[in-house]
Amino acid sequence: MAEEEHVVIMDETAIRRALTRIAHEIVEKNKGIDDCVIVGIRTRGVYVANRVAERIAEIEGKPVPVYELDITQYRDDRLEYSSTGVEMTASLRDIGGAPLNTKDKIIILFDDVLYTGRTIRAAMDALMDCGRPRSIQLAVLVDRGHRELPIRPDFIGKNVPTSKQEQIDVSLNEVDLIDQVTIINQRGQAG
Question: Which of 47, 109, 116, 137 is the most exposed place for a label (fewest CB within 10 A)?
Fold first, then answer.
């Protein structure tokens, strides 16, 4: 039977520092936050986005809008995506439920872990269906490599080179009651 080894690679302090650094990098790259909109991919990407938005508000002295993106209909591993004649609509809403028109906005897209790039591709498809943004920038808490698509993040909390047998597990206080990132190693063979 295979054993799993769990190693904490980011604790609460490391996550907080990484997100604070990302907030500063976003402000610096965009010379402020005018026309910027933060979009978190459901579920944990939303919480990461909210935390960075709070730090940006502290830095800039004004809030940046935060939206939640549900990409379920856009995933290429769902039958509906490849079916012809199915109209897809992006669910992109702020906390109050108001929709977002992305036209001429600088979108900073957040996810917790970047792996193959397929989730991000689906998110970009969804964003484009909401209007034509000026640009889309990508921020992730953890980049673990193994891209299948040519997608590269603009802002990274931590690079974690992994093997395909390893998993990255992001736990956030809002969902999991603890802030930590663990790497899970599969050891041994099933027997």
Answer: 116
